[in-house]
TrEMBL record:
It comes from Desulfurivibrio alkaliphilus (strain DSM 19089 / UNIQEM U267 / AHT2). This is CDP-diacylglycerol--glycerol-3-phosphate 3-phosphatidyltransferase. One of its GO terms (cellular component) is membrane. Pathway: Phospholipid metabolism; phosphatidylglycerol biosynthesis; phosphatidylglycerol from CDP-diacylglycerol: step 1/2. InterPro entries: CDP-alcohol_PTase-I, CDP-OH_P_trans, CDP-OH_PTrfase_TM_dom, CDP_ALCOHOL_P_TRANSF_CS, Phosphatidylglycerol_P_synth. It is an enzyme of class 2 (transferase). Its EC number is 2.7.8.5. Gene3D superfamilies: 1.20.120.1760. It comes from the Bacteria.
Length: 191
């Protein structure tokens, strides 16, 4: 077990603590845990590159940690009425769509590499900003006018990313073996 993967596992272990703070409506503490998790996300990636310790396990664990944090936060905030439920449905549906797509690729014996696209990275940024905004709203009251715009922007980038992954999935499923390798390389160049 290398240091970057250990940091990622610690980030996964922060999810229950985050959930407890959210359910108890201790948004200051939830925000602190969320920020610590965000810093650890940047730190594990930086260390993996610096120490040349990128691993397949890390490539799998990192998005799982990110999704666990985001999905947990969105679901609890929606249940508590802090953010719109329809936005949470979009966020969770996109991630389920990606997981189902990967599952189909695995079940059909397709070779692929896990690599986020630009639209995926942009979606993650908007979702993170949305969570931070709502968790820190008591400190950001002067930005209250941005709330609806942020919700709409997050929804739009989530929909665009969903559509992009669907397009890539159907292209990949319809490609022959030579085209699949080219598709994997072109998508890796997007990260």
């Amino acid at each position: 077990m290398n240091i970057p993967n250990l940091i990622t596992i610690i980030r996964i272990l922060l999810v229950p603590l985050l959930a407890i703070f959210l359910l108890e409506e201790k948004y200051n503490l939830a925000l602190l845990v969320f920020i610590i998790a965000g810093i650890s996300d940047g730190l594990d990636g930086f260390l993996a590159r610096l120490l040349k310790q990128k691993t397949r396990l890390g490539a799998i664990l990192d998005p799982i940690a990110d999704k666990a944090l985001l999905i947990t936060t969105f679901i609890i905030l929606a249940v508590l009425g802090v953010i719109p439920q329809w936005l949470t449905v979009l966020v969770v549906s996109r991630d389920l769509l990606i997981i189902i797509g990967f599952g189909i690729l695995v079940l059909t014996g397709r070779r692929f590499q896990i690599a986020p696209t630009y639209s995926s990275k942009l979606t993650t940024v908007f979702q993170l900003v949305t969570v931070i905004y709502f968790l820190g709203l008591e400190y950001l009251l002067w930005l209250l006018f941005l709330q609806d715009y942020l919700i709409i922007a997050t929804a739009l980038v989530t929909l665009v990313s969903s559509a992009h992954y669907l397009i890539l999935f159907f292209r990949f499923m319809g490609a022959d073996d030579g085209d699949k390798n080219a598709l994997i390389q072109s998508n890796n160049n997007q990260t």
